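Q: Entry one of two.
A:
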Amino acid sequence: MTDDVWSMVHLERAALIDDLAHLDDEQWGKPSLCEGWTVHDVAAHLVDTARTTRLGFVAGLIRAWFDFDRQNARGVERERGTSPTLKRLRQVASRRSTPPAPLDSRLVEEVVHGEDIRRPLGSPTPTRRSP
């Protein structure tokens, strides 16, 4: 089951990377379906969560004084960085690290946030390949 979930997560990440590959600056700056976040912010959040380990999550939550929204905002700010977010998204596409949450939440995160990005851009939901 674990390998099945991770293979679906990796397929979702690859599909989103394909969809983001041709965005211009205006599209990256477009509001997403996540209140207060642009397309770029959501992509940075996905990079951050892909890099997050269980221990890193707990440490980040402590540094944010147990404020989950603050922790998320810090992760987005960190991952927006100066290098292209798409490049960093490609770098984490096959990672298997996860915050302390059920493994299925990794897949939900990728699917839901993929739609948070695609819908405002008018992009169709990709045809998903089977794992």
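Q: Entry two of two.
A:
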Amino acid sequence: MRAYISGHQAVSANDFIELALGTPVELWLGVEGETDDERAAREDAARDILADAPGLADDVARIAAEVIDTHPELFDAIPLPRPARRRTPRKAVAA
């Protein structure tokens, strides 16, 4: 089954997010290894987008809250078992 949003095919979860936001996810989260200049340019672009769409942040928060309310299983956390502590044997000290 194919999913289309506004005529664009969404293949992955990132596609759905990008189409919902109208911008690439990387614009908001950044990319690993970006330079200081790239980060400054990305943040400047994000500020411009927020200035042009002042309700965007509220819309994103509302959508996130709806997803959490509708699909709480996506956020189930399973505690990982702690590894057993390895104790080093103490050596006897000669008196």
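A: Comment on entry two: The first helix runs from residue 13 to 21. The helical segments are 13-21, 25-29, 36-52, 56-70.
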